[in-house]
Amino acid sequence: MHSLSTDDEIAAGDADLPAPRHSIVFSTLVAFVIIIGVTLVSMLGGLYMADSLEGDAGAINQAGSLRMQAYRLALIADQDPANLNRQVQIMDATLGAAAIESALMRHSGSGLSELHARTLEQWQQTMRPLLELPTNATAFRAEVPQFVAQIDDFVGTLQKSSEKNLEIIRGLQVGTLFVIVLIAFLLIFALNNKLVTPLRQLTAMARQISRGNFTGQVTVAGETELSMLSRTLNQMNQELGSLYANMESKVDEKTAALTRSNATLQLLFDSARLLYSQPDEPVVVMGRQLSKVRTILGCGPVSLCLNRVAETDSHTAMTSASLLPPAYCKLPDCQACPVNQDGAHLPSGNHLISFELRSGQTDLGSLRVEQPAGEQLEPWQSRLMITLADLYAASLSLANQGQQHARMALMEERAVIARELHDSLAQSLSAQKLQLARLKRQTAKGCAPEELADTMEEIERGLNSAYRQLRELLTTFRIKVNEPGLKPALQATVKEFGANSGVDIQMDYQLDHCPLTPNEEIHCLQIVREALSNVVKHARAKSCALRLTQDRQGTIHVTVDDDGIGITDSISPAGHYGITILVERANSLNGTLTVTPRDAGGTRVYLRFPPDYRLLDLKQERSGS
């Protein structure tokens, strides 16, 4: 199955949410459209009515002036007949003025036209003919009040018609204002109920979510955008709450796992450090670690059973509880151990889970955990036990190898002592034994005292030589190196021989970057000591130079030069120089040693040998080629 992309998930989520039936945005737009429409209709109606009133004021003024002109005509008819004709023309022009005609057209349905027609008819048929005859001025004045009354009716009707239009405009404006206020009130009420209040609730819910509180719920009635948003936020809040709870549990689990891993690593580190610092006592270190192993595992008792190398029986068993053999242990009868039975069940109902300690094909024992029946270790517990078993096996193997090497070193040391005694002291004593047998035969034969004295003198010299060899052997076997390395030992040797003999001994040591084995260091030290001993005792030298160098091929060169009496033969005269011992030590280093006189006087002891680490390089080079 392929997972949905982000866009697909959003689309799927949108498909699950129903579309709002009553949109707040749409309703608000409709309300504003209605308000705008009503306002527009009101404005248009007002403009129309205002247009209908345009010119009414002028028409009223014109109509009102007719009354004054009628009285003026009556006055002029009596007092100024000459201007009567012009005043009549003005009266005719006023009755037919454009403002009055326009007002008649605008108020065609109000009766103004009939009033105007009667007024015009009375003027033309009654009033004007009376003015044409001067003798009828009195009759004209009598008709003026009736004529003015008709004009008053006309002006009043026109004024009422204009006021009616003004009332219509006022009513339209008041109605429009009422409708707009009503719609605005309904809109504000609806927005407060459907927008402001839900938004407050949603905002409060958002604040709760920001503080990590996912228990809030918001209910918005209706089918609007905010109701859909509230349902979405409620669903999201529930999901966030569950996710947060799961996240906290996962964080707790991860924290516990990290703590457990840290404790496990600390246990392994402490075990490795203790086993490394106490390589000769790994069993004691393992026993002390069993209780910590049990604490970290959180399981039943942990026990350790160790076998003898090359044997099947166990020799040590201990448990994390008391470092004593566990209750089920049957030492020395290992065949009765529950581990060797089917299921490894204990009398208590628990069973044993074993982890073998192996070094190659060698079975060194087992590390065991006691668990309730049917309950297995978790994977991390098994990995820890396997790692500890491997670590303990490696430590035991190294300890066994160290003990084996110590045995081999002891046997080799004893062989070296035996060889030294055989090559030096044993031969000297054997020679003295022969000399003593010779003395007995001479005494039995009754030889001359001079011959007996010569034999006794040879026996005395031989005993002195054997004693000297014994002391040299004791000195050699008692050599102590307080600091690791050949250089400190040589410095101590030079200081020792220089202080006791008065010979000025100088040393040039250039092997600081040459790693020598302990065997090579011991043989080099013994050869140098033997050579310096010969210089001090036999060379009669004032100064001596000791030089140790290494050439480009890696060969070690050791030179001891003195300015003494020199040597004429490389064969030891009566054992005075011990050349034979020096040569044997050089052979043990796979090297060569020569003792030769120097041209400038004195003797040179020269040793050269290849160090073991260079022999390893040569072997690798040969195998590579």
From TrEMBL:
Keywords, comma-separated and alphabetical: ATP-binding, Cell inner membrane, Cell membrane, Coiled coil, Kinase, Membrane, Nucleotide-binding, Phosphoprotein, Transferase, Transmembrane, Transmembrane helix, Two-component regulatory system
Entry membrane topology: Multi-pass membrane protein
Domain Histidine kinase: start-end pairs: 416-613
Record's signal peptide: none
Cell membrane found in the keyword field: yes
Gene3D superfamilies: 1.20.5.1930, HAMP domain in histidine kinase (1.10.8.500), Histidine kinase NarX, sensor domain (1.20.120.960), Histidine kinase-like ATPase, C-terminal domain (3.30.565.10)
Compartments in which it is found: Cell inner membrane
Residue ranges constituting the HAMP domain according to the UniProt record: 193-245
Reactions catalysed: ATP + protein L-histidine = ADP + protein N-phospho-L-histidine
SUPFAM superfamilies assigned: ATPase domain of HSP90 chaperone/DNA topoisomerase II/histidine kinase, HAMP domain-like
Domain of life: Bacteria
Residues spanning the membrane: 24-48, 168-191
E.C. number: 2.7.13.3
Entry's Gene Ontology molecular function annotations: kinase activity
SMART domains documented for this protein: HAMP, HATPase_c
Enzyme class: transferase
Coiled coil region boundaries: 422-476
Pfam families noted in UniProt: HAMP, HATPase_c, HisKA_3, PilJ
Protein name as annotated: Sensor protein
Organism in which the protein naturally occurs: Halopseudomonas salina
